[in-house]
Each structure stands twice: as structure tokens, then as C-alpha cells.
Design brief:
By secondary structure, the chain is of the alpha+beta class. The protein has a single domain, classed as CAP (Pathogenesis-related Protein p14a), CATH 3.40.33. It has 3 helices and 8 strands; from the N terminus they run ααββββαββββ. An 8-stranded antiparallel sheet has the order 1-2-3-4-8-7-6-5, covered by helices on one side. A hairpin with a 3-residue loop joins β5 and β6. The longest helix has 19 residues. It is globular and about 45 Å long. The N and C termini lie far apart (42 Å).
């Protein structure tokens, strides 16, 4: 009887956890019309030529950053060295904004209250807090989206879209 009661409690707790975990649809995880999985060439087609390009070489990969609007929009692509592809064909693995010039498809941008994100999509699946900021992570099927929020004002200071295979989150 005790085992059945414990099993019922465990199932109930699991169901509550699943009910409160929210997932943002992948269709929302775009910034300014581009997303993780697109190419740098597509980003240039949509955003125009970047103001600055930073090229970095690592042992196994090459990484290229496109910076727009005085570093307020960052688009990063990478590819393994053994794959000989043109820079325009590098796959975007990270996009971040620090300006309200760009939005998500539902109009979310920096400077807005994070409460508006919660109203649309529920609470994030992961929260990391520091003294000044909170990072809220929403996981999708093909990509993840993060919101950095000022702890005192509750306003979004930056938004990021990142490949779920990135190990830093």
C-alpha cells in the first residue's frame, strides 16, 4: 500500500512539473526575420552588409561574427574546418540583440517588460540569476531563446536565439 501511495505521489508530482514547463514555439524564435540554422548569406540578404566582421579560427571550427548597428545586433556562424564552404554558407548558431530596432514575430524586443513574455508564453524553463540580471531560457524543438532581464526594472536588456547544441546553457 505504501508503494502504491508513493507511486501515485510521484506521478502527481511529475504531471505538475510537466504542466508548468512551457515551451516557446520555434516559429517565435526569430529576430528580424533570421534564426539559428539560416546561413550568414541569408542574414546579409535580410539585414544588409554588416558594419563589422570578426573572423576567428579555432582548432576544429571557424567562427564568423557579423555586427550590425554599432554592435547592437550580433549574428554568429560557424563550420568545421574540414568542410570547405564559403563564408555566406556558414550556419548561424547564435543571434543576439541589445536594441529595440529588431523584434521577434510577436513584437517582443528589448526595453519591454519581461512580464509580456510570460503573458504570451508562460514562465521560462530555466532561470539563472545574478546580482543585476536574470537570464530566462525558453527551449524549442530546433532552437532556444533567452531573455536577459534587469533584476530591478524587470525590463528586457537583450534577447538571444541559440542552437540547442551549444553547450554553454
Amino acid at each position: 500500500m505504501k508503494r502504491i501511495l508513493m507511486l501515485c505521489c510521484a506521478v502527481l508530482l511529475f504531471c505538475q512539473t510537466v504542466a508548468f514547463a512551457h515551451e516557446m514555439p520555434d516559429e517565435e524564435m526569430y529576430i528580424g526575420g533570421i534564426t539559428v540554422g539560416d546561413t550568414l548569406g541569408y542574414a546579409k540578404l535580410i539585414m544588409g552588409a554588416p558594419e563589422q566582421i570578426i573572423r576567428q579560427k579555432y582548432t576544429e571550427k571557424r567562427d564568423v561574427e557579423y555586427l550590425y548597428s554599432h554592435e547592437k545586433l550580433l549574428v554568429r556562424g560557424e563550420m568545421e574546418w574540414e568542410k570547405k564552404v564559403e563564408e555566406d554558407d556558414l550556419i548561424i548558431w547564435n543571434i543576439s540583440i541589445h536594441d529595440n530596432q529588431w523584434t521577434t514575430p510577436s513584437g517582443i524586443t528589448t526595453g519591454m517588460p519581461y512580464a509580456e513574455v510570460v503573458a504570451l508564453f508562460g514562465e521560462s524553463s530555466k532561470v539563472h540569476r545574478t546580482m543585476k540580471h536574470e537570464m530566462h531560457l525558453y527551449k524549442g524543438q530546433k532552437r532556444n531563446m533567452s531573455f536577459f532581464v534587469d533584476s530591478q526594472t524587470g525590463l528586457i536588456s537583450s534577447i538571444g536565439v541559440i542552437s540547442p547544441s551549444f553547450q554553454g546553457i
